[in-house]
Write a structure and sequence with these properties.
single chain; 341 residues; alpha+beta; Glutamine Phosphoribosylpyrophosphate, subunit 1, domain 1; 8-stranded mixed beta sheet; 5-stranded mixed beta sheet; 11 helices; 13 strands; 34% helix; 21% strand; binds glycine
Length: 341
């Protein structure tokens, strides 16, 4: 039996056995960043981190940094998995999901919002201007317009052409659980397979500011060609993002349904509270997904975490997940996350 299988067995059988297995865990720890710092998912996190760093390096608040950073891929017309130019649902509607969380446990989110290019900023307004946490669909768009956000067409000619291409070959069947190796057929499903189209997905960003406060942001256009109304993990507090200013923060990317089923980001932060390193906590969250649903090994889910002390960590089901980090000594750094397979 492999070490991993032994570990899975131990974790099913008894928490004490799990703890013992963990005590012997030898996986390398993630990098320790200097304060202030920011980490974010995927290659496009490098550019996003620069916008966040512009805030952090001047002594700015982590919340302002993650909002500024998340807006970069939201505005990038070459990015078809976040914001404007995101690939649409199977009916041709671009619908976006985002959430944000601050150092006080405040949070705001929008889900299935349409015609608004910067859902992360609307999520912040939900947090700061309403008594609610999550606005969805038409109500979210209405709120955004009332707040002064322009109502726009987000479907670009390239995204429309890709959608029409998909319609021709896929018989209107959404593929929420894209298998590795099928992305080229099922759509751009940018889940981090090397060489896969786009090779990108949700941006999740976590920042620790000079004052020692944590915040996080997460934004996506979700699964390409999804069913109308489908919402992934990214706007769900505890699934796509969680911040506890006393402990650390975590965010996720990949097949959102699997993250929601396991309340992934909350789990990562709770494991860190129990003493796990960020990397080990991310690994355990991935293992939980695989315990419950072994066939999830054919999917991609990745977690990224940052502790209160600036230690980062990442783990994914499949190889190919990357994360970007930036602090006073390391700029533009892109690292591979470790993976179970
Ligand atoms: N993780 C993005 C989504 O599933 O929508």
């Amino acid at each position: 039996m492999t070490d991993r299988r032994l570990f899975l067995k131990a974790s099913v059988l008894a928490p004490a056995a799990l703890a013992a297995a963990r005590a012997g865990a030898t996986e390398p720890r993630g990098p320790v960043l200097t304060r202030p710092c920011v980490v974010s998912t995927w290659d496009f996190g490098v550019a996003a981190n620069q916008a966040a760093w512009a805030v952090l390096s001047k002594g700015g608040r982590a919340l302002d940094a993650v909002e500024a950073g998340a807006r970069v891929p939201e505005a990038d017309l070459k990015n078809h998995s976040v914001g404007r130019a995101g690939y649409p649902d199977r009916d041709g509607h671009v619908s976006l999901d985002a959430c944000i969380m601050d150092e006080h446990g405040g949070c705001g989110a929008v889900a299935a919002i349409e015609h608004i290019a910067h859902p992360i900023s609307v999520a912040r307004r939900v947090m700061e201007k309403t008594p609610h946490v999550l606005l969805v669909g038409e109500g979210a768009t209405q709120f955004a317009v009332e707040q002064g956000f322009p109502r726009e067409e987000l479907l670009t000619p390239e995204s429309r052409a890709a959608w029409q291409d998909w319609l021709k070959t896929n018989r209107y069947q959404p593929v929420a659980n894209s298998e590795v190796g099928t992305y080229g057929k099922t759509g751009p499903a940018p889940l981090g397979v090397p060489g896969g189209p786009g090779n990108h997905d949700t941006i999740g960003m976590l920042a620790l500011d000079a004052a020692g406060n944590l915040s996080g942001a997460c934004t996506t256009s979700g699964m390409a060609w999804k069913m109308r109304g489908r919402v992934g993990d990214s706007p769900i507090i505890g699934a796509g993002l969680y911040v506890d200013n006393a402990v650390g923060a975590a965010t996720s990317t990949g097949v959102g349904e699997e993250v929601i089923r396991n309340v992934g980001s909350f789990l990562v932060v709770e494991l860190m509270r129990q003493g796990r390193t960020p990397q080990d906590a991310c690994r355990e969250a991935v293992e939980r997904i695989l315990q419950r649903k072994p066939e999830a090994r054919d999917l991609q889910v990745g977690f990224l975490a940052l502790s209160k002390t600036g230690e980062a960590g990442a783990w994914s089901i499949q190889k190919g997940f990357t994360y970007a980090l930036c602090d006073g000594v390391r700029q533009d750094r892109l690292l591979p996350g470790l993976s179970t397979y």
